[in-house]
Structure formats: C-alpha cells, structure tokens
Amino acid sequence: MMALPISFWEITQHMVHYTKPSLQKHIIRILWMVPIYALNAWLGLVFPYQSIYVDSLRECYEAYVIYNFMVYLLNYLNSEMTLEANLEMKPPVNHLFPFCCLSPWEMGHEFVHMCKHGILQYTVVRPVTTFFSFVCELAGVYGEGEFRGNVAFPYMIAINNFSQFIAMYCLVLFYRANKEELKPMQPIGKFLCIKAVVFFSFFQGVLINILVFTGVIQSAFGISDDRTIKGISNRLQDFLICIEMFLAAVAHHYSFSYKPYVNMLATQQSCCAAFLAMWDVSDVQRDIKEH
Fold first, then answer.
1. Do the domain assignments include residue 9?
2. Residue 276: other Cβ atoms inside 10 A
3. pLDDT tens digits along 61-111
4. Residue 78, domain member (yes or no)
5. Rg of the chain over all Cα atoms, to the nearest angstrom
6. Within 10 Å of residue 93's Cβ, how many Cβ atoms?
7. Residue 161 burial (CB count, 10 A)
8. Between helices 33-46 and 3-16, what is the axis angle to 10°?
9. DSSP type of residue 101
10. Where are the beta strands (DSSP E) in 78-225?
C-alpha cells in the first residue's frame, strides 16, 4: 500500500517529463521492479502454495532490470562521448577475484562487448531456468527448499547463482573502467538499489530454504507437516519482500529521480509514446541476437 503509490508516482513523472528517451526508457523499466516485486509478494501471501508460479515473472524481470541498467549506463556514456574510442585510450582493467589470473580484456569494442555479453547471458539463463523449474514443479521433481541430489531445486539455485554472479561481476568491471565518466550521474546509489533488491530477495529465499532444510523453521513454529512448512516459508519470504519493497521504493525515488529530466524547453514526447516505448523490447531481442 505504501510502495506502489511511490513507484507509480515516479514512473508517471518520468513519462510526463520524457525529455531523454534513450535514458528514461530504461529508468522506467527499472522503476517497475518495485511494483512487480510487491504485487508478486502480496499474491504469494494470498496463495502461498502456488507461489512458484507467480514467482516466475519476478525472477525473469530481475534479469531484465540488470540488462536495462547496463544499457542505461552505455547510453549515458555514449551521449557524452564516443565510449569505445575513450576506452581505447585507457590502460587495461585487471580482473577481480576470483578471475584475477585471467588476461585483461582489450579496451574498446572488445571490453564493451564482453561486459554486455556477461550481463545478457543472465537475461537468457534466468527465464530458461525459470521455465525448467516450472516444468519440474508440474512433474513433481522440483523439490523447493530441498537440497537433495534427486530434485531440481539445488541445481537451479547453483546455475542461477553463478549466472547472476557473472552478470554483476561484468557490471562492476564496467563501472571500474568508466568510474570518472560516470561520477556526475552518481551510479553507486543506483547500482546499490538494484543490487540490494535482486540479491536480498534471492539470498533471503535461499537462507529461508536452508532454515527449512535444517529444521529451524519447524522448531520455531512447532509444526511437522511438509505442506504447512512450505506454506509458512513462502509466506515468510513474501512478507519480508512486502516490507523491503517500501524501502526500495523510497530508495528508487531518490536514486532514479525524474527531476534532472524536467526541461520545459526540450522537445517532449507524449505520455502515450513513453508508455509504448517502455514495452518495446526490440532492443533486447537485437542485443541477444547479436551476442
């Protein structure tokens, strides 16, 4: 009730003051993260035993948000300079742990290409693993919250975790290479907003599943029925997300503010055009096809 009005207000203001489409299109997509997570969590509270089905949209959208943040940074830098030419004049960026033994990527086109590649793989991997999780759940072999070798859950967690780590690693590497150029748009706060929502929800869910697997939740609530335990663990995750999305909405309001784009002298597109541009995913399709 508190998160949605804050998010919808910010989204509406960006659409009203749609003066920089190349940047604001991606900001609006990022801002939709909070309403989607909040509504998803509320539906999970109402229908706890069907939460895996409503979680599918949230899980796919988080990958989409990371991709949009990367493109937002690229468009910002390209509007100020020729990014690849500027990178070619810089010394190579050394890899971070645990990839510090790898040779640095060649600065310029290759560096941008590899960073985009690392982020786009998550945009593809996450929907694919979500689809397989959905199929496994229908087949009765998903085993949510069970860390056993004969169910799909631990394998899906490992694949998603590794894919997400690679995406975030490439994002950090890209920031290190363009730290000075990105300073005016204060990327740290924006990055932390996205990272906090994605990581907290993911690892929070993993932690709750570990507590279920080790019997902590059962002891705390004094229950033994598997179906009841699953319902409580799902409700606990969704309840925490509902609270966290209010905090995220406030953080997004300040980090992705519409105020820098208020310019009465600039040519503005209509709200309808801004709304339609937000749903046009041809740029995502083009990048995935390219990579």
1. no
2. 11
3. 888 888 898 889 988 988 877 888 888 888 888 888 888 888 888 988 889
4. yes
5. 20
6. 19
7. 13
8. 150
9. T
10. none
CA 241 to chain centroid, in Å, comes to: 14
Structural domain count, the chain: 1
Residue written as token pair 């799909």: 152
Is residue 127 one of the residues assigned to a domain? yes
Q: Which of 266, 190, 287 is nearest to 18 (CA)?
A: 266
At residue 74, what is the residue type? L
Measured on CA atoms in the order 199, 201, 204, 205, is the torsion positive or negative? negative
Q: pLDDT digits over 239-264, tens only?
A: 888 888 999 999 999 999 988 888 77
Is 38 inside a domain boundary?
yes
The neighbour count for residue 6, using CB atoms within 10 Å, is 19
Q: CA 252, 158, 58, 230 torsion: positive or negative?
A: negative
The three-state secondary structure class of 280 is coil
Domain range for 66 is 19-290
CB 156 within 8 A of CB 206: no
DSSP structure string for 140-177:
T---TT---TTSSHHHHHHHHHHHHHHHHHHHHHHHHH
Reduced to 3 DSSP states, what percent helix, strand and coil does the chain have, rounded to the nearest 5?
75, 0, 25
**Among candidate residues 283, 63, 26, the one with its CA nearest the CA of residue 168:** 63
Number of neighbouring beta carbons within 10 Å of residue 20: 18
d(CA 285, CA 136): 27
Angle, nearest 10°, between helix axes 109-139 and 51-80? 170
